[in-house]
Amino acid sequence: MSAPSSTQTRHDKHGRYPVATTVEDFQRNLAAVQARIEAVCRRVGRDSATVRLLPVSKTKPEASLRMAHAAGCRMLGENKVQEAYRKWEAMQDLTDLRWSVIGHLQTNKAKQVARFAAEFQALDSLRVAEALDRRLQVEGRSLDVFVQVNTSGEASKYGLAPEDMPAFIQKLPAFTALRVRGLMTLALFSSEAGRVRQCFVLLRTLRDRLRQSAPAGIGLDELSMGMSGDFEIAIQEGATVVRVGQAIFGARPLPDSHYWPGESSTEESRT
Fold this sequence. Notes:
Elements: H1 23-44, E1 52-55, H2 62-70, E2 75-78, H3 81-90, E3 98-101, H4 110-116, E4 119-123, H5 126-139, E5 143-148, H6 165-171, E6 178-184, H7 193-211, E7 222-224, H8 231-236, E8 241-244, H9 246-249
Helix pairs in contact: 4-5
């Protein structure tokens, strides 16, 4: 599935995306991102309908989210649970808007996620799985989840080590309110496309291997990987979900530490 390694990342674009301030801006940005998705799909012989665009709205104000919704966004990705929960509460009039939590979750925030999220993309421990499942049972809800894998080997990143995944996957059927859909990763932050690509290849090959022995009911069809700076490469390597923020909403003024606590200072300039 790999395309030529000459494909470059766009990480040097960080901070250069103009902030979307009108519904028309959002429509134009969404169309531009979708065109990029369709172009790379044509190059590698994929149907663009197999790639879901998840707009990432973290740190953006409610007014921006409402414009994004007016432009056609029906699911938004948020990193911080409290920020996402606050936005959900304020925007319940938009009854068709769904929420994906894509950042690390502490068990004491599981109650909030169980109440409002439609999707959780950062499952990385049995403690979190147990906390979410218990709270979801109380709410009478179920939740789509992705298991986060640390494919870069960086100590600063969350996610399970690839070698720990087979045993972890075998334990997930115990949590009946969790609908396991696939795997998620944050690639290495680098302008060197080859190094970024290695993370995506690792996630895909790991998924393919896990499929052979996955318990019944554990879905591993989805691969959530790729952000504003590198999603073309991710699509070349099999991504079914790409998490794109700045190319849709515009650059963020806040420091990276706000987005991913515990991450290296350059990490989240990509979404």
